[in-house]
Automatic annotation (TrEMBL):
GO terms for molecular function: aspartic-type endopeptidase activity. The chain crosses the membrane at residues 75-92, 99-118, 138-158. The keyword Transmembrane helix applies. Pathway: Protein modification; lipoprotein biosynthesis (signal peptide cleavage). The gene is lspA. The keyword Transmembrane helix applies. Pfam families: Peptidase_A8 (PF01252). This is Lipoprotein signal peptidase. It comes from Paraglaciecola hydrolytica. This protein specifically catalyzes the removal of signal peptides from prolipoproteins. It is an enzyme of class 3 (hydrolase). It is a multi-pass membrane protein.
């Protein structure tokens, strides 16, 4: 048990960035709470000519994938998220102290995944509220968790190209 909390484990691996996952989770949940408390369901609040805050629920995954599947998808996506978070935590432990971009990307993905999983377990749906649009074209609503997952995925790609030379040596 003491090895789990060993100072070296947290200072020498990617686990030292887990605070970012916690921060992402807290920011995601806080903004969703504000949305539910201050914006009526389906109400749109225009922020700019291309950006609204719109309170909506998503029972599916990205882009409302499987949102009309009858309810089983809630637990399916929850299990997938927990498996992915477990796998990423294992990968995170394997990262070295010299790596920064990769563990930051992993922690953003963990925080975002857990933010949406929390909604699925507690509410039965994910609260989305950020909407980008142009004239009649509207991007599906998303939230801070989704943004963190996308940013984390983009950073993984950047890390892959940035460290390509190191991995081929």
């Amino acid at each position: 048990m003491l090895k789990l909390f060993n100072q070296n484990l947290f200072s020498q691996t990617g686990w030292r960035f887990l605070w970012l996952a916690v921060l992402t989770f807290v920011l995601d949940q806080y903004t969703k709470k504000l949305t539910v408390e201050h914006i009526e369901l389906y109400q749109a609040v225009e922020i700019t000519p291309f950006f609204n805050l719109t309170h909506v629920y998503n029972t599916g995954a990205a882009f409302s994938f499987l949102s009309d599947a009858g309810g089983w998808q809630r637990w399916f996506f929850t299990v997938i998220a927990f498996v992915v978070v477990g796998l990423i935590l294992w990968w995170l432990k394997q990262t070295s102290r010299q790596q920064i971009l990769l563990p930051v990307a992993f922690c953003l993905i963990i925080g975002g995944a857990l933010g949406n999983v929390y909604d699925r377990i507690v509410l039965g749906h994910v609260v989305d509220f950020l909407v980008l649009y142009y004239q009649d074209w509207v991007w599906p609503a998303f939230n801070i968790a989704d943004s963190a997952i996308c940013l984390g995925a983009a950073l993984l790609i950047v890390d892959m190209f940035k460290n390509k030379e190191l991995k081929n040596d």
